[in-house]
Amino acid sequence: MVGLSEGEKRFIRGGIAQDLRTDGRQRLHYRPISVETGVIPQANGSARVRLGATDVIVSIKAELGKPHPLQPDKGKVAIFIDCSPTAAPMFEGRGGEELSTELSFALQRCLLGGRSGAGAGIDLSSLVIVEGKVCWDLYIDGLVVSSDGNLLDALAAAIKVALSNTGIPKVTVNLGASPNDQPDVDVSDEEFLQFDTSGVPVVVTLTKVSRHYIVDATSEEESQMSSAVSISVNRHGHICGLTKRGGAGLDPSVILDMISVAKHVGEQLMSLLDSEIAAAEASAEDQ
Amino acid sequence: MEYVDSLTGFRLDGRRPNDMRQIRGEIGVVAKADGSALFEMGNTKVIAAVYGPREVQNRSQQVNNQALVRCEYSMANFSTGDRARRPKGDRRSTEISLVIRQTMEACILTHLMPRSQIDIFVQVLQADGGTRSACINAATLALADAGIPMCDIVTSCSAGYLSSTPLLDLNYIEDSAGGPDVTVGILAKMDKVTLLQMDAKLPMDIFENVMQLAIEGCKAIAQYIRGVLLENTKQLECRRGV
């Protein structure tokens, strides 16, 4: 997709080796990040995150559903990512499906924990209304509007921002006479409960280009990668999920080194996002 | 249901029958595309991106004396009120893709770019009635941003007829009321109709009024779009330091 000449490739690699990338950043610097909340009024929560030329929108919708029989005390969360053809002509038709699925699963792994729901960044038990009967189904829909590398980090950041923007309607439940009845549920249109997003991790992708690794690679830099490791880190510096992409093998010691770097970068990204969320909410309130 | 208040003459969302919703256009929203634009009509919000003119990707589709124009319409999962996961390329979006392609092809000077391809991708972020019109308006802005030669700008607007009143620019509630919905696309300067669609039935003389109302809407949009393009050109000029 990215057509680069031999000279450009050498320029990118040489810059990374000297810790001065083509756009003037250092290896562990992010591009400027801009955050907007409430972009989709019909949704319970939404956010648009721009990371350089990468632009993603995430919307969150809550619907009433029934908990899974094996986990009666937990709500359900599903993540769907869609790559719009506006981002690149190759996503036309079914062309974006492969990448969409890869991103959806990577995010599910990073944010939703194991199959039992243990270790999830989102507290699933807070979504239950009546145990075994009624719960909230949270649908997280992401749309890639413009793509210039590092989609996973941008999407994870957008999900985090959108969750902090999400208001779940308050519900009052009238339990039926017999325990087998489906309870009556009254959804309030006025009172909303805020979501606890302190446990939602951020994803830091380290892209390895020749001997060094960089954060927040552009699509030109991604075309030169040998492998990439995406690590999701939460506020306490714990690792919540990990995905390795790319064919080339990595030395285990390098992976451990990458994890410690990702933890450090993740803390910075987390505090940056927190301040951006506060600023976006303040500007939304002004309007 | 009362779609036009019989006392005050206001519609459900507080507009008068011949009022349009708030429109907003913005150029250059997708950094990597050759041309892109965002267009809002009330709560309806669409993004269009144009790639090209470029080499034809599928050689068998190449046309030797003119450019190949392609279009794809897609709706985001979250664009409608109730979340529905729709498959790509369903019949409705295929039809709208075709309509947009034909409308845009009519104004692009395709004979100037033989053996090349122009892709128009429209993405609906929010649907609240009139997505067809919003997509065409967004595509016009995006094509102009991409610097693709066009003989005129195409704009589109819809009008309907409910409670014995012709209504301009229907929103979703009015659109799903079951009354006639006339979508018109015009070449603004040449004053020619390039797109005309209507469902449901309407007496001949009323149809004329409704269509005239939609054409007036198109003209208002054309004026706005021209303003957006002019402003954008001024900014480009300013950046070049001319």
TrEMBL record, chain A:
Pfam families: RNase_PH (PF01138), RNase_PH_C (PF03725). Keywords: Cytoplasm, Exosome. The keyword Cell cycle does not apply. The keyword Cytoplasm applies. GO terms for biological process: exonucleolytic trimming to generate mature 3'-end of 5.8S rRNA from tricistronic rRNA transcript (SSU-rRNA, 5.8S rRNA, LSU-rRNA); nuclear mRNA surveillance; nuclear polyadenylation-dependent rRNA catabolic process; rRNA catabolic process; TRAMP-dependent tRNA surveillance pathway; U1 snRNA 3'-end processing; U4 snRNA 3'-end processing; U5 snRNA 3'-end processing. Its main location: cytoplasm. InterPro entries: ExoRNase_PH_dom1, ExoRNase_PH_dom2, ExoRNase_PH_dom2_sf, Exosome_comp_Rrp42_subfam, PNPase/RNase_PH_dom_sf, Ribosomal_Su5_D2-typ_SF. One of its GO terms (cellular component) is nuclear exosome (RNase complex). One of its GO terms (molecular function) is mRNA 3'-UTR AU-rich region binding. Belongs to the RNase PH family. This is Ribosomal RNA-processing protein 42.
TrEMBL record, chain B:
One of its GO terms (molecular function) is RNA binding. It is found in: Cytoplasm; Nucleus, Nucleolus. Keywords: Cytoplasm, Exosome. InterPro entries: ExoRNase_PH_dom1, ExoRNase_PH_dom2, ExoRNase_PH_dom2_sf, PNPase/RNase_PH_dom_sf, Ribosomal_Su5_D2-typ_SF, RNase_PH. The keyword Cytoplasm applies. This is (wild Malaysian banana) hypothetical protein. Pfam families: RNase_PH, RNase_PH_C. Coiled coil: none annotated. It comes from the Eukaryota.
